[in-house]
Design a protein that fits this description.
Layout: H1 4-14, E1 24-28, E2 41-42, E3 52-53, E4 57-60, H2 62-65, E5 74-82, E6 96-100, E7 112-115, E8 119-122, E9 125-128, E10 138-139, E11 150-152, H3 160-168, E12 173-177, E13 181-187, E14 191-192, E15 203-204, H4 207-217, E16 221-228, H5 232-245, E17 248-252, H6 263-269, E18 273-278, E19 281-282, E20 286-292, E21 309-314, H7 318-336, E22 347-352, E23 356-357, E24 363-373, E25 376-381, E26 399-403, E27 409-410, E28 415-420
Parallel strand pairs: 5-6, 13-16, 13-17, 14-15, 17-21, 19-24, 22-25
Antiparallel strand pairs: 1-12, 2-11, 3-10, 4-6, 4-7, 5-9, 8-9, 18-20, 20-21, 22-28, 23-27, 24-25, 24-26, 26-28
Helix pairs in contact: 1-7, 4-7
Bound molecules: adenosine monophosphate (AMP) and magnesium ion.
Adenosine monophosphate (AMP) is lined by residues 186, 188, 191, 203, 205-208, 252-254, 256, 258, 315-318.
């Protein structure tokens, strides 16, 4: 059976980012949050746009104030008042100064700002008691960024700081990758939707809802295709439809070796190349990863802009399907979405508060709460059952501690590798 690392390598090798030419759209800056830049941005503006003052004070010629002191102040004539937002009207000559406020444009002729705290004003004259360094408190045009240099590279996610930079550069429209379309299918005769009556023997489909949230959080557009019963024909037609219209299809259930587990056979009959059928991970062993390529008949009718698709058949158990999403699907989806880096899983080292156990046979993931305490991560194992069928105690957790193959115990107080998961709002 494939190890977790081997499976991860196979998956990521098959995932190619969306196409920089075909798979992009132009959006307004206001819609940019969380989107991924498809084209590098360059600005024709310098930052700062012009020399300006970093202080409230007086713009002077350094030669006029050099060597001045409290006993021998430099005395200059104030010829202009320059608040922020105004263009200076005078060129500062020798013996002159301009009152200047923070952020205001430096007047021609002046090269230095004297802070107001070391001055005394008398009418139209300013007494300067202490000389600053030459060019002090001047933010020079182009010191932070020169027009024409690369401003932001393609492949980055846009958050507050990037959007602030784009706004400053007056980049009102930008080219971003379209969001990948991700079809989600729940399989199983036992499943009902949350609003259907729960007859004996039935189970509510929770995977569809969890996966839709995770897809959206990872930059995709979830397309919830609902519940499909364990009937090969129904399953085949739903999968065929999903593959033809989505960049990625995620099904849950039906990938085990049970009598009603049809997914692999259906994928094969539809021309998929199956790369993975099982991974040595707990929970989550039965996991199918397949790809559909352009040559497959599935894309010819109906005509579709999508020419290949990734297929993840996740195990049905609610915890198994979430753990395998976090470990394998999320990085794949982020890479597909166009992120050029930081799409990999986020592992941290944490001190475990409790003993963690595994049978040592497969790489095991147990869930709990990860917290930063005085700069060090601590991990608190969720109470209750760590069965892959127990979804309940997964709520309000944000970390999966990893016990590698052959490790049967992590003792309280020992360090453990933890995969960060869940919503940032929970941390
Ligand atoms: P399967 O992988 O199809 O054998 O499913 C394993 C178990 O996972 C089933 O017996 C159900 O208890 C559970 N399960 C399957 N699909 C879902 C789902 N969509 N939501 C919640 N539980 C599910
Ligand atoms: Mg099933």
């Amino acid at each position: 059976m494939l190890s977790v690392e081997q499976a991860e390598a196979i998956i990521l090798e098959k995932v190619q980012p969306l196409d920089t030419a075909r798979d992009t759209e132009v959006i307004d800056l206001l819609e940019a949050m969380g989107r991924i830049l498809a084209t590098p941005v360059t600005s024709q503006l310098d930052f700062p746009h012009w020399d300006n003052s970093a202080m409230d004070g007086y713009a002077v010629r350094y030669a006029d104030v050099q060597g001045c002191s409290a006993e021998k102040p430099a005395i200059l004539a104030i010829v202009d008042e320059i608040p922020a937002g105004y263009q200076p009207q005078h060129t500062i000559q020798s013996g002159q100064a301009a009152r200047i406020l923070t952020g205001a444009m430096m007047p021609a002729g002046a090269d230095t700002v004297v802070m107001q705290e070391v001055t005394r004003r008398e009418g139209d004259r300013i007494f300067i008691h202490s000389a600053p360094e030459p060019q002090a408190f001047v933010r020079h045009q182009g010191a932070f960024y020169k027009a024409g240099e690369p401003l932001l590279p393609a492949g980055i996610a846009l958050g507050a700081t990037e959007i602030a930079v784009l706004a400053s550069a007056q980049c009102n429209q930008l080219s971003v990758y379209r969001r990948p379309r991700v079809a989600i299918i729940s399989t199983g005769d036992e499943l009902v939707t949350p609003d259907q009556a729960l007859q004996p023997g039935k189970l509510v489909d929770s995977n569809q809802y969890a996966l839709a949230v995770l897809v959206a959080q990872s930059g995709g557009i979830p397309e919830m295709l609902g519940i499909v019963p364990d009937e090969p024909e129904a399953l085949k037609s739903t999968i065929a439809k999903a593959v033809a219209s989505a960049d990625m299809v995620i099904s849950s259930g039906g990938v085990s070796v049970g009598d009603y587990d049809y997914v692999d056979a259906i994928l094969a009959s539809l021309g998929a190349e199956i790369h993975i059928r099982a991974i040595a991970i707990k929970p989550g062993k039965p996991l199918t990863f397949a790809t559909f390529s352009q040559s497959g008949e599935i894309f010819s009718s109906p005509p579709s802009p999508i020419t290949h698709a990734l297929y993840f058949g996740l195990p049905g158990n609610p915890v198994s399907s979430l753990v395998t999403f976090w470990r394998f699907v999320q990085p794949a989806l982020k890479k597909l979405a166009g992120l050029s880096q930081f799409w990999g899983p986020n592992f941290v080292q944490a001190r475990s508060h409790q003993e963690l156990r595994s049978d040592g046979k497969r790489e095991s993931y147990v869930w709990g709460k990860l917290q930063l305490v005085d700069g060090l991560y601590e991990f608190d194992l969720a109470g209750g059952s760590h069965s892959s069928g127990n979804l309940i105690n997964l709520a309000q957790t944000n970390g999966l501690a990893v016990l590698p193959v052959d490790v049967k115990f992590i003792r309280p107080g020992e360090m453990v590798k933890v995969l960060q998961v869940g919503s940032p709002l929970l941390n």
